[in-house]
Amino acid sequence: MRLPTILLLLMAAPAVAVEPVTPADSPIVVYRSDDGYDDVRDALVTAIEGQGIKITNTLHIGDMLERTAADTGLTRRIYRKAESLEFCSIPLSYRMSLAHPANMATCPLTISIFQKATADDGVYLAFRRPRMLGDAADAERALLEFLDGIVQETLE
């Protein structure tokens, strides 16, 4: 009788939010996961698409750096795997542009996922902390909450 009650309570408990590994005022917000790269990437895609948003581009940063290493002389390997997913939220883009037309430079939105080449310490998700022109405090806060919500859902 106790086990079903405990399981029910655990299932009903709210999920605990994961905290970033970067300071609160960092220009880049970074989270870490112990899950595998492909699992985290799949969860990130699902979280973005679950918002009704299409991923418009995937930048294969790790592959690009590896592919061009010999030609550029930049041979120190940084990532085991690294990608950036680009997407756009029309309502948030509109709010940002209302605050100042130049805020359109904030789009597309990007969340990066990577594993470090020299350490087996997990998978990282990162995004830029919004900084905008004009009277944009509300738009910045909304965008930060939006991006953070996607990452939180990814890491659940």
From TrEMBL:
Record key words, sorted: Signal
Signal peptide: 1-17
Name of protein: DUF302 domain-containing protein
Taxonomic source organism: Sedimenticola thiotaurini
Lineage summary: Bacteria, Pseudomonadati, Pseudomonadota, Gammaproteobacteria, Chromatiales
